[in-house]
Design a protein that fits this description.
about 160 residues, alpha+beta, five-stranded mixed beta sheet, two-stranded antiparallel sheet, 5 helices, about 35% strand, globular, isoprene biosynthesis, MECDP_synthase, MECDP_synthase_sf, 2-C-methyl-D-erythritol 2,4-cyclodiphosphate synthase activity, EC 4.6.1.12
């Protein structure tokens, strides 16, 4: 196949005193994600989308959350390693599109920095990486600020 599409989804619980990493960027906020790694839901969803596009299972298969080597790991490392698996299969990224669902904090000022951060890790043009953010109008776990989720889609093409 010339083109492959993958979809990824990730959720993390939010708690006081934790750090909030999104798209490889530390976001100032009174709550952060609870996770084995740094809890970057954006990167985790994108990794799952890339891996899923090529039927390479999911991020937990390659980087298990019970493995000591991945405790508190910078998710940018997982992003790079996931893309290496994609390239080993002879594919490259056409584009990435992701949507963060979170009531707080307001993320608009950080989106360009997230896009640039991930583009640099992946070695692709920033125009190939899209991050959007939305609230859930105070509905659900995101609206109650108990957690946040991310949906991501990645289009790959044969190199």
């Amino acid at each position: 196949m010339t083109y492959r599409i993958g979809q990824g989804y990730d959720v993390h619980r939010l708690a006081e005193g934790e750090t909030l990493w999104l798209g490889g960027v530390l976001i100032p906020h009174h709550k952060g994600t609870v996770a084995h790694s740094d809890g970057d839901v954006v990167i985790h969803a994108i990794c799952d989308a890339m891996l899923g596009a090529l039927k390479l299972r999911d991020i937990g298969t390659h980087f298990p959350d019970n493995a000591a080597e991945f405790k508190d790991i910078d998710s940018k490392i997982l992003l790079k390693k996931s893309y290496e698996l994609v390239k080993e299969k002879g594919y490259e990224i056409v584009n990435i599109d992701s949507t963060i669902s979170a009531q707080q904090p307001k993320l608009l000022p950080y989106i360009p920095v997230m896009e640039q951060s991930m583009a640099e890790v992946l070695g692709i043009d920033v125009d190939q990486v899209s991050v959007k953010a939305t609230t859930t109008e105070k509905l659900g776990f995101e609206g109650r600020e108990e957690g946040m989720s991310v949906n991501a889609v990645v289009l790959l093409k044969k190199s």
